[in-house]
Amino acid sequence: MENTNANADFGAPWAKSLKWLTGFCVVILGGVAAIGLFSGPRESAIWILAMVVGPLAIHFGGAIFMIRGYTVAPGRLTIKRAGWSTRIDLGNLTAAEIDKDAMDKSLRLFGNGGLYCFAGLFRNKKLGNYRAFATDPKRSVILRFPNRTLVVTPDEPEKFVASLASSRPS
């Protein structure tokens, strides 16, 4: 058994689909902002807000929500973002399982569906409503709690699940 006082860090690799979606969104948002800067009624505040500020705000807003990795510590999971960290108490975690198909056929209820990550509230038949903090759905680890379900996608799902088991109080 591993040392329960040690933190275990995991990366958040991007799936090809996330790379393509992010690239596409960045090009579109940049293109709209360029059009806004170099054409149209540039003296109009509404034009500047809609065509320049809006697309750039979406781009940079998405970037700060980017998932950079995960840290498992005794009783806690930290999801590292570009702008901050989200902490999840693992005290009442009931199960952690690897399922590469966990996010298949999901409907996004609220959140980000491909600009730097897949994060927010989702729903599918397999999991019901769940919250995702994902970058590569094929690396999904389902975390089940009494009142909620989370999906994370660490670079090494097997080691991640083992780390969760060793971080629980005896």
The total count of helices amounts to 3
Q: Provide the number of structural domains.
A: 2
Q: Helical amount among residues, as a percent range?
A: 25-40%
CATH architecture of the largest domain: Roll
Quick one: how many beta strands? 10
- Uncertain segments are none
CATH class of the largest domain: Mainly Beta
Give the N-to-C terminal Cα separation: 11 Å
Radius of gyration: 19 Å
- What are the secondary-structure elements, in order, as H or E? EHHEEEEEEEEEH
Give the amount of beta strand, in percent: 25-35%
Provide the CATH topology of the largest domain: PH-domain like
> How would a crystallographer describe the biggest sheet?
6 strands, mixed
Output the structural class: alpha+beta
Q: Provide the residue-averaged pLDDT.
A: 92
Global shape: elongated
Adjacency order of strands in the biggest sheet:
5-9-10-8-7-6
Describe this entry's structure for a reader.
By secondary structure, the protein is α+β, with helices and mostly antiparallel strands. The chain folds into two domains: 16-64; 67-167, PH-domain like, CATH 2.30.29. The chain contains three helices and ten strands. The protein has helices at 16-38, 45-64, 157-167, and strands at residues 8-11, 67-73, 76-81, 85-89, 95-98, 107-113, 118-124, 128-134, 141-144, 149-152. The chain has a six-stranded mixed beta sheet, covered by helices on one side. β3 (76-81) and β4 form a beta hairpin. The mean pLDDT is 92.
